Amino acid sequence: MKKISVLLGVLLLSLSAMVMADPVVIKFSHVVAPDTPKGKAAEKFKQMVEERSKGAMKVEIYPNSQLYKDREELEALQLGAVQLLAPSMAKFGPLGAREFELFDLPFIFPNKETLYRTMDGAVGKRLFDKLDGKGIVGLAFWDNGFKQMTANKPMHNVADFKGLKMRIQSSKALDAQMKALGAMPQVMAFSEVYTALQQGVVDGTENPLSNIYTQKMHEVQKHMTLSDHGYLGYAVITNKKFWEGLTAEQRSLLSQAMKEATLYERSIAEQENADSLARIRAAKTTEVYTLSDSERAEWMKTLMPVHAEFEGVVGKENLQAVYDIAAQVAKENQAAKDKPATKAGKKK
Ligand code: SIN
């Protein structure tokens, strides 16, 4: 009896120590608005982690470059000043992981299915392996969407880009893309884009619709071309030392919450972009133009050589993998289309 009450006492003491211990704080810094696919998924992740850990883990979200701008946040993660980031794939170059620029190549993903299979398969794994030696662990790939062009003049044909100063993210593939169009690319942190557009420091930019709308870029851009000419998505990453310092249970809780937040993020991205387009149209500050088939063909002819130019940077194996996945997806889509026709044929 005495033994049992001693044991109970020890149990109670360790339980109260667990409850009273300082929570593990995870600072999640990002550069976009809270009401974007990334911002909403970060919030979802926070809710799940705090609820499931019963407060033993706390996620502090710092959106809109509140803590750090693009490049600074990567340095902060490596130094352990923040624990979680979700930079766009275009921002891994300064880390020495330029293979991520695969995702920046123009017209690389014909559809989202090709994109997801690329992220979730061998290519995504190879990219995350690249981060290992840099003190970073890759946790997930998050989606945003295809990019559209904005400027203060219409952009229908390639010639319309001649001499335009276009803000880009810090990616050499994006630099090459803008140069191929005849524009003058200028690297700039995301938090500075609105003011730069407003003051005419740059003439235009490219981004998915949810970023254009939530940063109010449409208020200072008279024209937008719906071109889907490139893609923007994210790699969610953490500091390796922090990650390895967690207990196996904590890592498992975080991994599961990240898995669910990723599914959620991918499920809302398309709708968030569609809603943003509707809001931009309703604001009536920007003329929205959709590329015709022949204009798209001209853009593609001009931009596709960037793939070969960057084969050595993004990895031949990675580039070929995307082409193979795209071909497989096209084959499956065609087979799905043909199926009802065959059935109808048999019935005849
Ligand atoms: C982001 O979506 O995280 C920012 C993209 C950009 O810098 O254009």
**Number of H/I helices:** 14
Total number of domains: 1
Shape category: globular
Which regions are unreliable across 5 or more consecutive residues at pLDDT < 50? Answer: none
Strand-residue proportion: 15-25%
Oligomer: single chain
Q: What is the CATH topology assignment?
A: D-Maltodextrin-Binding Protein, domain 2
Topology pattern, helix = H, strand = E: HEHEHEHHEEEHEHEHEEHHEHHHH
Bound compounds: succinic acid
- Provide mean pLDDT, rounded: 94
What is the second-level CATH architecture? 3-Layer(aba) Sandwich
- Strand order, sheet with most strands: 7-6-8-5-9-11
First-last Cα distance: 84 Å
The count of DSSP E runs of length 2 or more, i.e. the number of strands, is: 11
Which structural category do the helix and sheet elements fall into? alpha/beta
| CATH class descriptor | Alpha Beta
Q: Please compute the radius of gyration using only Cα atoms.
A: 23 Å
What is the CATH H-level superfamily? Bacterial extracellular solute-binding protein, family 7
Q: Into which percent range does the helicity of residues fall?
A: 40-55%
SSE order and pairing:
Layout: H1 2-20, E1 24-29, H2 37-52, E2 57-62, H3 70-79, E3 84-85, H4 112-120, H5 122-131, E4 136-146, E5 148-151, E6 165-168, H6 172-181, E7 184-187, H7 193-198, E8 204-207, H8 209-214, E9 223-226, E10 231-239, H9 240-245, H10 248-283, E11 287-290, H11 293-303, H12 305-309, H13 311-314, H14 316-347
Parallel strand pairs: 1-2, 1-3, 6-7, 6-8, 9-11
Antiparallel strand pairs: 3-10, 4-10, 5-8, 5-9
Helix pairs in contact: 2-10, 4-14
The protein binds succinic acid.
